[in-house]
Amino acid sequence: MDKKSIITILAILIIPVLAFWGLTFSVKSDSAVAQTKGKAQIIKFSSTMCLECQQVEKIFDELMPKYKDKVDYKEIIVDSRNDMKNKLIEKYSVSLVPTIIMLNSDGSQCKRIEGAIPKEQMEGYIKELK
């Protein structure tokens, strides 16, 4: 066999393997919300078409600047079928929006809120985070 034939055969065998690996490799979707040491976390699941989600977003826009040193805030938008594949949706059994998951600095879930609540109540829950 000549050198050209060997290269052709290797290419035929290797290219499909590389293509399969490239198409199936994915970064874990929950790595975007990796636990930050020493900080509590708030994970908000919402949709851009949800009116309650928009109300909750306004509350967080007002409150989070005060608590940015104490709390990591992440928002997961679940508007499309692809967004529904997010591992955090399954992990926290999110079935409606808005859903807010509050985690203490040790990663333990301390509060789950489904639906909109008043700003004062939300701030009270944020203050309770450890």
Give a structural overview:
With 130 residues, this protein is α+β, with helices and mostly antiparallel strands. Helix content is 42%, strand content 19%. It has one domain: Glutaredoxin (3-Layer(aba) Sandwich). Strands 2-1-3-4 form a four-stranded mixed beta sheet, with helices on one face. A hairpin with a 5-residue loop joins strand 3 and strand 4. The model is unreliable at 25-33 (pLDDT under 50).
Q: Could you tell me the number of beta strands?
A: 4
CATH superfamily: Glutaredoxin
Total helical segments: 4
Architecture per CATH nomenclature, i.e. the level-2 architecture:
3-Layer(aba) Sandwich
| Strand portion | 15-25%
CATH topology: Glutaredoxin
Percentage of residues in helical conformation: 40-55%
Structural class estimated from helices and strands? alpha+beta
Using only C-alpha atoms, the radius of gyration works out to 22 Å
Looking at how many chains there are and whether they match, the oligomeric state comes to single chain
Topology of helices and strands:
Elements: H1 3-24, E1 40-46, H2 51-67, E2 71-77, H3 87-91, E3 99-103, E4 109-114, H4 119-128
Parallel strand pairs: 1-2
Antiparallel strand pairs: 1-3, 3-4
Helix pairs in contact: 2-4
How do you describe this structure in short?
This protein has 130 residues and is α+β, with helices and mostly antiparallel strands.
